[in-house]
Amino acid sequence: MCGIVGYIGNNTEQTIIDKLKKLEYRGYDSAGIAVMNKTGYRVFKSKGEIKNLEKVVEVSKDSKIGIGHTRWATHGKPTEENAHPHVSEDNRWALVHNGIIENYLELKDKLMASGMNFYSQTDSETIAKLLQYYDGKDKLTTIEKTLNNLKGSYALAILNEDINGIFFAKNKSPLFVALNNGKALLASDIICFNGFATEYYVIEDGEYGFTDGKKLIVKNRLGIVGKSPCAFDCSVENVENVYDHFMIKEIFDTEKALKSNLEYYSVEDNLKKLSALNIKNYDKVVFIGCGTAYNACLVGAKFFREQLDIDCFTDVASEFRYSHPKLDDKTLVILVSQSGETADTLAALELAKENKSTTIGVVNVEYSTIAKNVDITLPIKAGVEVAVASTKAYSCQIITMYIASLVLKATLNKTKADLKEVSAFCDNFSFGKLEKYQEIADTLRYQNKIFMIGRGLDCCTAYEASLKIKETCYINSDTYFAGELKHGFLALIDEMTYVVVFATQKEVVAKTLSNAEEAYSRGAKIILFTSLDDMDKAFMDKCSFIVKVKDVNCGLQAITNIVPWQFIAYYTSVSKGINPDRPRNLAKSVTVE
Predict the structure, then answer these.
(1) Is the distance from CB of 5 to CB of 155 less than 8 angstroms?
(2) Span 3-237: which CATH code?
(3) Which end of the chain is more exposed for a tag (fewer CB within 10 A), N or C?
(4) List of residues 6+ apart from 488 with CB closer than 8 A
């Protein structure tokens, strides 16, 4: 959510725009840059895509320093006025900001009382005005005084018209810096460093500083901070795409990603910390995530409950802190996040640590804040995921938690985890019949609403399948436990309704089909989704579509079940003329509450 770039070097405007394009996957609705030359800085902004910004940017050979931003609207609509960079009233300061300033209205009132005027609806403009308010000879002191007034989250890249360099600050929103032969690059994601540097510096919460390309000064409230660089792994930006969209590429990447995951966890050294965990030391396991990650939590909780016979609970990260959770040193908290920067999940991590709970992070980005702050990091090894709608990452979250449950069970039994069934699953992975998925998509494109039902693991799949349809197709898709139809859901059924029935769980399939019959008898059209061969022939004859998937006969059935619905969501989206990579109003990485 939002992207930041700061650059010191030649070809400034184009370099910043090129780096902003690498951050498009995060989601945005406007973009802008500010570049310095001999007469000060110039600001260019536009609504919509970066290509709109390119049309208005004026290139200057004198430009050697600049900042850029892709904005996902929080305070104020997507307009040029609300787009970043934001400037002080005296035009001496310009900045770009990721995050949310929670006390901006209070600060704005204070600044307006001092005579300042505001042109935007954003919280970010308040920071620019504060820099003017506290401006003094020592600009780092000005930065410090400004930061002391801010409550909330921020990653900042800041220009001052008198200084040849870029100031920066960070709190609860990612920010990194790389230097290379007098040039500097600041970014909210290290993928921007590909082709620029082989190492980078991580800016931590509460730190701020300055770089002119030759030196890097980092401070916190205690004084100067010594920084050691991290090696940059160029493989983090393996985003070449020969497909029409990243979403379809990433669905097809699933097989390779699952095998990469298995390969990683087949190395004993990579399981040392997890294997040292004795599940008997805990009373319960709490799984926390948002969106797709939360749906993966629903599956992971079932794995742990079945394999380890322990109480497991799931909670949406945005609700967790406010539900007065009972946490202590006998609680194992598992936080699932593709980006590792999800704001609500980070807040849940902070609460868990305050209560001395053991924390595990199931993340895709190994240099992320969650990965660095949990007790145990379980990387999912999905590779870069660009499309907003998560596909391969969801599957890799599931396989990671399944392997984790097997490892912890083996530790209990004082044996080594047997991953043979996981290996067999990866070796025999199948995408199924794409023609069938396209046929279903051609029908769903005309629907305004659909419903999905299932029991147990099938209902978990239904939640994620429904989310994919909502995200990419803008169809109102709802999920219900199959046994809940009589408790309100049936009132919504008519002859225009499609009901997707997930029936891959042998022990409850008869009950699920009985519930589906209730919907069918009231006019619903049925899409049956099953892995079973001995289905009721009379019921199957009533179905408009039947999707048959491989019977995996283990928890990884959840992966086999979701992939067809990722395809169906993609094909439906494309058939409706929607860009599935960047659905409206959504962002890939939600770094604000």
Answers:
(1) no
(2) 3.60.20.10
(3) C
(4) none
Per-residue pLDDT reduced to its tens digit, 171-189: 988 899 999 999 999 999 8
- CA-nearest of 459, 461, 453 to 528 is 453
Burial class of 359 by CB neighbour count within 10 A (0 to 12, 13 to 18, 19+): buried
Kindly state the DSSP code that residue 160 receives in the 8-state scheme.
E
CB atoms within 10 A of CB 205: 13
Average pLDDT, the chain: 91
Strand order in the sheet with 207-211: 86-87, 93-98, 154-160, 166-171, 207-211, 216-220, 223-224
Residues marked active site are found at 2, 588
Confidence class of residue 423 from pLDDT cuts 50, 70 and 90? very high
- Do 499 and 451 touch, CB atoms closer than 8 A? yes
* Residue range(s) in the chain whose domain bears CATH number 3.60.20.10: 3-237
pLDDT of residue 590: 59
Q: What gap in Å lies between CA 464 and CA 480, rounded to an integer?
A: 12
Which one is the CATH code of 246-427: 3.40.50.10490, 3.30.360.10, 3.20.20.140, 3.30.2290.10? 3.40.50.10490
Start and end residues for every CATH 3.40.50.10490 domain found in the chain: 246-427, 434-575
Say which DSSP state 307 is in: H
Give the CATH architecture of domain 434-575. Answer: 3-Layer(aba) Sandwich (3.40)
Measured CA to CA, the distance from residue 553 to residue 530 in angstroms comes to 12
CA 12 vs. chain centroid, Å, equals 29
Q: And the tokens for 554?
A: 């283990």
